[in-house]
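1st attempt posting a full record on here, be nice pls
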Amino acid sequence: METKTVKDTLLSRRSIRRFEREAITTEQLDVIYEAIRNTPTSYNGQQFTVIDVDDQAIKEQLYEIIGQKQIKTCNRFMAFCIDYNRIGRFAKAEGVEMPPFADTMDGVIVGIVDASLAMMSALTAACSLGLGCCCIGYARTANPQAVADVLKLPKGVFVVCGLSLGVPREMPDMKPKMPTSLLIHHNAYRSDDMLPQLQAYDATISEYNANRAGGTSDNDWLKHILSYYTEALGYEMLNALKDRGFDIKK
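the predicted structure (as tokens):
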């Protein structure tokens, strides 16, 4: 089983939305699972669970809810979740009081960070094996209760993000990213004028979208991202979390 170097894996990563019918091998899957298992987590609490879906009927149910075609065409779809159910059940069985950590903003952040790190572990491992991946944030926002029902998630478990995996059928152009000088500040947050660099990046994205292979658009970066923010104002995520058993109080 050949693998890419860490450098090649991370620097050539791109979102893959079209997959071959070929299956991920057991050997490849074992590497991905072990990468997930070795994820660094807060306190080593491992406040996450991954639902690995290979049942085509379930993938198609999720596609109908979430609306991303790669969910039903990928070989496997993984849902990365905050999980306080597991430790809560263990504590109850042992007669140990479970503090209401999941009902705090920090508790939710801890679970989101752990689940996100686990997803990046899986993505990196899969890409190093030559597989393709696409992160799907709509798995969190499209209809949290419907997704939870399909995946039979108990209270205390909430989907943070989805990941489609499979053998890639495409190799799209890499999206331009911001220069490191905008993303990495030294010793303190930058205090100089970032506007010229941001405007230059916006122009780069516009050019990329106008000329990329596989479908063009007239999207820039700034207004396109702000449109996502506007859409997200209607997601009601606080209520969705409360429905899943996270009653955030502070």
